[in-house]
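Need a sequence for this fold. Nothing fancy.
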């Protein structure tokens, strides 16, 4: 059974940092990419970042470039999202998801292209 389990969410002040983790298990993910999405109350799910399982390719939403970093530890089957300079408007439930490798990076921004999802972890940024 495929499982994606997020951790690392919490409450942080504006300008602060958090590191989210996404542990993957239940299948071989070598032909997959892992993405992070966030969803605030009353808003649509929003792409944040993605990384191929090899770690060779990374993708970021423009809004987080330069502040967030996605990395993978293949030995631990875990993807990390380091978030620096957090803003109150980034308060949301952050979820990780796994997608088969896609031919175009655009696909990684689309939630419908992901096969597996975690339950999410709450990130709250206070002003």
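Here you go.
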């Amino acid at each position: 059974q495929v499982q994606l389990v997020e951790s690392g969410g919490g409450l942080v002040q504006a300008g602060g940092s958090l590191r989210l983790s996404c542990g993957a298990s239940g299948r071989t993910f070598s032909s997959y990419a892992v993405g992070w999405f966030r969803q605030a109350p009353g808003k649509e799910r929003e792409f944040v970042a993605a990384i191929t399982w090899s770690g060779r390719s990374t993708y970021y939403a423009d809004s987080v470039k330069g502040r967030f970093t996605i990395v993978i530890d293949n030995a631990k089957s875990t993807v990390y999202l380091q978030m620096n300079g957090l803003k109150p408007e980034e308060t949301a439930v952050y979820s990780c998801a796994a997608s088969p490798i896609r031919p175009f990076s655009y696909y990684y921004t689309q939630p419908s292209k992901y096969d597996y999802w975690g339950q999410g972890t709450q990130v709250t940024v206070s002003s």
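For context: The mean pLDDT is 97.
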